[in-house]
Amino acid sequence: MIENVFHPRIIENKDWAILLFVLALLLIAISKSAFESRFNDFMNLIVSDKYIKIYKDSAQLISGFTVFLFVVQLISYSFFIQLSLHCFGLASKSDWVVFIQILTFLVFFILSKYLIEQIIATAFDIEEFVKQYNLYKLSYRSFIGLVLLPIDIVLYYNETLSRTLFFTIIILLLITNAATYLLSLKNYQNLLFGKFFYFILYLCTLEIAPYYFMYYWFTKKLAQ
Question: Cα–Cα distance between 97 and 94 in angstroms, integer?
Answer without folding.
Answer: 9
